[in-house]
């Protein structure tokens, strides 16, 4: 028994309440080491020295990654106060395990693990509706133009490929007009990327948080969208951009105008005064300067600077200062022997993260979203005035307009204190409001129950891409990565996280799948049958393609002649199967087969008498499979495969099924014999 690998703590994701008298506990051990794990527990304040604990449970091994096995169980006790220890058995030796460590024969009861009291405020409550939802992400400008009369920007033709600054005229009226389409597909929740007043098509640089962007509609249109969606049983969540604002935001403009005398100077992270004004172009200007510099043979730096400013016809002082510094840097590098013809804006932008001299030239003198994004200065949420302003925004759109929650942009760069206050305000406005953060990595610090309900599950997405879409990992690695999420996140957070296959920030799933629709379909089938709330990026159901931004933000295909109706029906069928089976939404997950040779991945989902066996064959060869129902803990004589409606009879306690290459079977235990 490798004792160094064994781990448990009576808090965090290893011990937490799941009901007013029920405690979830988890224990970690070396992979393949322990055969059995039991927990002994009882009331904290009873006489432990003279009485053995009255309750014993065996923990279930429910997940394994490349190093560890994870065991879990739910302990129930009406007194709400738990004191417990473990008995570990590796088949050859047994030992007790408590907070004091390991003991061969006798437990020192003073060292028992303790969960002192289940307090009602310690529950991790997530909105009930999220667990049953199928989300649909909409990038408003690219979905549907329902009211051309409000378009003021010059519009790109709907069928043209998007550029960084393209506007297509999609709006809230267009979403209203397509609600029947979404309802027919089976969508029950919409996530809208930002809809507030901004100057770009993506609207992540917000000018006014209290106004709908005029290009999208107005407050009345917004309320109509919420109302009509709710009538169809569809929830609507907004994108909350609370990490940064636009440089046109009133507070930042006041700083630009008044400098150190601005009452908003502590709203942002400023490196000094005066605050540099945004050049008319940043990265684009870098490439132009390099081009002009290569065309000139003037030996004088001053002459070069004046010449390039004249050639670029620059008028604003901020543009001139930008070019002066850039030319000086490039000339110095050329004098050191660097071939500047091989440089471009992207390379210099990355170099500036390590070269302070260059950063001072091409970056602003204030912190921003990402690196040096002049138009998106970063907010200082540690400032009480900033928090008060943003929390009022969060409350207003829920209470006054009726949105059903917030997706939080760049959530991992905003302080935890703010998110705790944010949750309090949002849940007071509507206890069933949903809070989901954008975190691309391990999101455990935000999922303790006091900040987010869930996250955009990019750990899920990247695992699915690598297994189904790219076929670059085998089933063992696939399960190792999924198992980490299942053991890192508390079960309420897993159920309330958005399982996405792509988004406005990634290539589309079909493109990631190299245009192979079979791979795409398998990824969707897994998304609809696995733990968590599925999220569809608009148009994926029609087999839309697209690479990285802005290509992934193409306009929605409404011409039925160009739509992939087979893919649409695949999505619609899987959504219906998910809706018809509560086990796929909130049921237990148990991995039952993981075959690396044949790339077979099979699991059960169970909720009371709703029991399903889901089998993925991610290889090109057919697989003849047999499952023992006793091992599945299913007592039934007939299964129905839900995608084909084919019946499978149980014989001698076993079910046999052939799953074709690159295919899936969703078998439901038939309880209506």
TrEMBL record:
InterPro entries, per the entry: GH, GH13_cat_dom, Glyco_hydro_13_lg-like_dom, Glyco_hydro_b, Ig-like_fold, Ig_E-set, Malt_amylase-like_C
A GO MF term: hydrolase activity, hydrolyzing O-glycosyl compounds
Xref: Pfam families: Alpha-amylase, Alpha-amylase_N, Malt_amylase_C
Source organism superkingdom: Bacteria
Segment forming the signal sequence: none
Ranges for domain Glycosyl hydrolase family 13 catalytic: 137-578
GO terms of biological process kind: carbohydrate metabolic process
This protein's UniProt keywords: Glycosidase, Hydrolase
SUPFAM superfamilies recorded: (Trans)glycosidases, E set domains, Glycosyl hydrolase domain
PANTHER family: ALPHA-AMYLASE FAMILY MEMBER (PTHR10357), MALTODEXTRIN GLUCOSIDASE (PTHR10357:SF210)
Family per record: Belongs to the glycosyl hydrolase 13 family.
Designated name of the protein: Glycosidase
Organism for this UniProt entry: Orenia metallireducens
Lineage summary: Bacteria, Bacillati, Bacillota, Clostridia, Halanaerobiales
């Amino acid at each position: 028994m490798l004792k160094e690998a064994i781990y448990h703590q009576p808090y965090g994701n290893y011990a937490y309440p799941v009901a007013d008298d029920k405690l979830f506990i988890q224990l970690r051990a070396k992979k393949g080491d322990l055969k059995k794990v039991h927990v002994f527990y009882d009331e904290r304040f009873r006489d432990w020295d003279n009485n053995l604990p009255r309750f014993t449970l065996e923990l279930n091994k429910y997940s394994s990654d490349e190093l560890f096995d994870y065991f879990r169980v739910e302990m129930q006790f009406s007194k709400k106060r738990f004191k417990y220890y473990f008995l570990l058995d590796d088949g050859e030796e047994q030992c007790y395990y408590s907070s004091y460590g390991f003991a061969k024969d006798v437990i020192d009861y003073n060292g028992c693990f303790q969960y002192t009291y289940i307090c009602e405020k310690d529950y991790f409550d997530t909105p009930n509706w999220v667990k049953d939802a199928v989300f649909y992400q909409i990038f408003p400008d690219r979905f549907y133009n329902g009211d051309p009369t409000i378009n003021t920007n010059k519009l790109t033709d709907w069928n043209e490929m998007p550029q960084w600054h393209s506007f297509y005229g999609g709006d809230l009226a267009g979403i209203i007009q397509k609600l029947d389409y979404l309802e027919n597909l089976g969508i029950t929740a919409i996530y809208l990327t930002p809809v507030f007043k901004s100057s770009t098509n993506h609207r992540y640089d917000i000018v006014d948080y209290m106004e709908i962007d005029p290009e999208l509609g107005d407050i009345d249109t917004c309320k109509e969208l919420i109302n009509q969606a709710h009538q169809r049983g569809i929830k609507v969540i907004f994108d909350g951009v609370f990490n940064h604002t636009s440089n046109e935001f009133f507070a930042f403009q006041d700083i630009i105008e008044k400098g150190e005398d601005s009452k908003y100077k502590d709203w942002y992270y400023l490196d000094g005064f005066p605050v540099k004004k945004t050049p008319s172009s940043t990265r684009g200007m870098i490439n132009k300067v390099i081009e002009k510099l290569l065309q000139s043979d003037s030996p004088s730096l001053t002459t070069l600077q004046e010449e390039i400013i004249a050639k670029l016809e620059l008028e604003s002082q901020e543009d001139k200062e930008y070019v002066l510094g850039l030319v000086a840097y490039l000339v110095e590098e050329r004098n050191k022997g660097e071939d500047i013809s091989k440089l471009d804006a992207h390379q210099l932008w990355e170099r500036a993260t390590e070269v302070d001299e260059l950063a001072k030239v091409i970056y602003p003198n204030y912190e921003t979203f990402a690196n040096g994004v002049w138009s998106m200065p970063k907010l200082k949420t540690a400032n009480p005035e900033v928090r008060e302003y943003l929390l009022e925004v969060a409350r207003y759109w829920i209470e006054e307009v009726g949105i059903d929650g917030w997706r939080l942009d760049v959530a991992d760069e905003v302080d935890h204190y703010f998110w705790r206050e944010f949750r309090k305000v949002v849940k007071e406005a509507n206890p069933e409001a949903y809070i989901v953060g954008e975190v691309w990595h391990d999101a455990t610090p935000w999922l303790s129950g006091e900040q987010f309900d869930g996250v955009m599950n990019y750990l899920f997405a990247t695992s699915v891409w690598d297994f189904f879409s790219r076929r670059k990992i085998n089933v063992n690695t696939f399960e190792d990565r999924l198992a980490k999420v299942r053991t890192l996140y508390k079960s309420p957070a897993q159920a309330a996280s958005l399982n996405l296959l792509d988004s406005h920030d990634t290539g589309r799933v079909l493109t990631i799948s190299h245009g192979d629709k079979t791979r795409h379909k398998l990824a969707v089938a897994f998304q609809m049958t696995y733990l968590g709330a599925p999220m569809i990026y608009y148009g994926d159901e029609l087999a839309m393609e697209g690479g990285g931004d802005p290509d992934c933000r193409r306009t929605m295909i409404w011409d039925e002649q160009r739509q992939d109706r087979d893919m649409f029906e695949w999505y619609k069928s899987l959504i219906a199967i998910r809706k018809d089976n509560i086990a796929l939404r909130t049921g237990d997950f148990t991995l039952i087969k993981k075959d690396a040779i044949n790339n077979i991945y099979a699991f059960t989902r169970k909720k009371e008498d709703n029991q399903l066996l889901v089998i993925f064959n991610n290889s090109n060869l057919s697989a003849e499979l047999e499952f023992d129902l006793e091992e599945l803990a299913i007592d039934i004589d007939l299964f129905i495969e839900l995608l084909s409606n084919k019946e499978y009879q149980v014989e001698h306690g076993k079910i046999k099924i052939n799953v074709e290459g690159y295919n899936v079977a969703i078998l439901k235990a038939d309880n209506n014999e």
